[in-house]
Amino acid sequence: xxxxxxxxxxxxxxxxxxxxxxxxxxxxxxxxxxxxxxxxxxxxxxxxxxxxxxxxxxxxxxxxxxxxxxxxxxxxxxxxxxxxxxxxxxxxxxxxxxxxxxxxxxxxxxxxxxxxxxxxxxxxxxxxxxxxxxxxxxxxxxxxxxxxxxxxxxxxxxxxxxxxxxxxxxxxxxxxxxxxxxxxxxxxxxxxxxxxxxxxxxxxxxxxxxxxxxxxxxxxxxxxxxxxxxxxxxxxxxxxxxxxxxxxxxxxxxxxxxxxxxxxxxxxxxxxxxxxxxxxxxxxxxxxxxxxxxxxxxxxxxxxxxxxxx
Length: 310
Known about the structure:
mainly alpha; 13 helices
C-alpha cells in the first residue's frame, strides 16, 4: 500500500497568496490611469477628430458639415499627392532594405570582437543622435554640386566627375535615401547587435567542429534567431519612413519642383500654407490607415509567436 503524503509536504502547484497583492494591483492601475487617459484623449481623440474633419468642407477653420468622401476623391485626383505616394513607396523600400543590410553587416563586424569595439560602436551610432534637420543640412552641403563632393573631386583633377543628384528631378529622392540611411543604420546595428550577443556561443563551437562555413551559419542559424530583432528594427524604420518630413525640408524642400515631394510635406503644406485642413486631414487619415495596414501583420505574427509554447 502506498504511504500517504502529509499535506504539509504536498508538492502540487499551489501558490501562497501574496499579502497585499490586490492592493498593489489597484495602485498600479491608478498609476497607469493618467497615461491611459492621455493615450485615449490625445491619440485616439485626435485621430477621430481628424477623420471627422476629413469628411467636411473645412478650409481655414473646421466646419461640421458632411460631404462624405469628397476630400478623399480630390486627394487621389491630385497629381502632387500621387507623386508623393510614389516617392514614399520608393524611398521606404530602399531606406528599410539598406538600413537592415548595412545595420546587420555593422553588427556582425562589431560582434566579431574587433579591436576598438567601443569606439566603432559610438562612431556608427553617433549619426542617430542627430536630428533629421541637422542631417539634411549636412548632406545638402555635401551633395551641393558647387560646394560638396562633386566640387572636391573635380578639384583633384577629375573634371568630368558628376554627382549632382540633389538638383536632378529624377534622382533627388535617392539623395534623401543616402542621408537617412547614413543616420539610421547605427540604430539598426544596435538592435541586431543585442540579438547577436544573445546567441549561444555553443552554436559557433559546434559549427566550427562540423566544419560549417561561417556564411552558412549566419544564413541558416543566426538570421532565423534574429527574427524578433529584425521585426523590431523593421517596425521602427517603417514608422520613420512614413513620417519622413524634416530631411526633405532641409535638403530639397520637396524639389526640384515637386520631384521629392512626400506625403507628410503635402499634408503640412495644405494644413498651414494653403489653409485646407479638410484635405490635409484626409491625407493624414490615409497615412494612418497605411501604417496600420503595414504593421498589423507584423504585430499579429509577433503576438502569435509569443503565445506558442516553447
